[in-house]
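Board notes, transcribed. Complex of a protein with zinc ion.
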Amino acid sequence: MATCEVCGNDYDKSFDVVAAGVTHTFDSFECAVHQLAPSCQHCGCRMIGHGVEVDGRMYCCAHCARDVESTTAPTDRVDGSSS
Ligand SMILES: [Zn+2]
Ligand SMILES: [Zn+2]
C-alpha cells in the first residue's frame, strides 16, 4: 500500500517508477504520465512514445520537429517517406 505522489490516492496496486535515479510512486499510468512524460516542444502534448530529439529538444513526432527545425529534417518510422 502506497500513496500516489500526483493525486494522493492510497491504492493497494500502486507501483514505483525509477526515473533518473529517483523513485516515484503512482496509483495509475495516467498519474505517472502526468508526472514523468516530457512535453513536445512544439505542440505541448505529452510524449508517451519515444518522441524525436533534435539538438536536445524533444518533440512528439517528426512533423513537430520539422515545423520548428528548418535546418534539419528528422524522420520517424511512420511518417518518413516524403517531405
Ligand atoms: Zn494518482
Ligand atoms: Zn508535438
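Helices lie at 29-36, 62-68. The beta strands are 2-3, 10-11, 15-19, 22-26, 52-54, 57-59.
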